[in-house]
Amino acid sequence: xxxxxxxxxxxxxxxxxxxxxxxxxxxxxxxxxxxxxxxxxxxxxxxxxxxxxxxxxxxxxxxxxxxxxxxxxxxxxxxxxxxxxxxxxxxxxxxxxxxxxxxxxxxxxxxxxxxxxxxxxxxxxxxxxxxxxxxxxxxxxxxxxxxxxxxxxxxxxxxxxxxxxxxxxxxxxxxxxxxxxxxxxxxxxxxxxxxxxxxxxxxxxxxxxxxxxxxxxxxxxxxxxxxxxxxxxxxxxxxxxxxxxxxxxxxxxxxxxxxxxxxxxxxxxxxxxxxxxxxxxxxxxxxxxxxxxxxxxxxxxxxxxxxxxxxxxxxxxxxxxxxxxxxxxxxxxxxxxxxxxxxxxxxxx
Length: 349
Fold this sequence. Notes:
This protein has 349 residues and is of the alpha+beta class. The protein has helices at residues 23-37, 71-76, 79-98, 136-153, 165-181, 227-230, 247-258, 270-286, 297-310, 318-322, 326-347; strands at 6-10, 47-51, 59-63, 68-69, 110-113, 119-122, 190-192, 201-204, 209-213, 220-222. It has a three-stranded antiparallel β-sheet with strand order 1-3-2, covered by helices on one side. Strands 4-8-9 form a three-stranded antiparallel β-sheet. A two-stranded antiparallel sheet has the order 5-6. A hairpin with a 7-residue loop joins strand 2 (47-51) and strand 3 (59-63). The mean pLDDT is 94.
């Protein structure tokens, strides 16, 4: 069947927090890899043309994928239908994890396309300059340093210099980071979608089959752990940090790492527990790597969320800051500092 509809996606060069250097190339390369990984399923859009965003408005001409956005309908589905969707998401996850990347992709970070059409490593769309990185360790270290640099720019955070917190952060980066990362096993490089959630999936409501996986704009090359920090939150599969204030998600984190109890809690949080256990079981049945099977996952989780909490968006983005009173900003900053200090204490600093 031929393609009758196409989509023109145009990048926004002034988007906040986005690296436009090779943004289009990154998306195109990620889509090419994902299409190969998910064959014979034709659920990733074909690319018919593209123009680099470097110094200009970039664009891609993509296949229009049939189906409805899964986000809202998923919430209203029966448990049986949710299980069917989650099973398909596990198949997608396993396919991306296990796919052999092109030999020209030798490091971590974003993707680019060279003059010969080869897919190579490049800068990340979500970090500036954002790589590429020769090692996974370099990748994680730079994420922390990038967020700390953003905290330096915030008039609220002030780079965490008050109360001596910055000195502790600097000591950890200089002396403690490598000790934590030493507990992380060398990992196979994998394509990380970075937002694999029901709002980026299309489905056929007659067959209940996923018909499209879309929006690879933020995709990058990382390890199998990384999508568990950035994706799957709609199906209770996102792993929060060790100091999350959400008691249900904190309990789910422990279950994903240490094993689910035979008897699930009989309270208002039962539905998240059921969905989460289904996700764990279908990942296992498909042979996919998951938090309990990835060595060093807990350490990676702590490093990832420590980086996120070093520079909370609401305390660094000018528009968010402008909408808050001084009292609100002080209260939120105090809470954020308590959290950062918890991480540092957990790391031994």
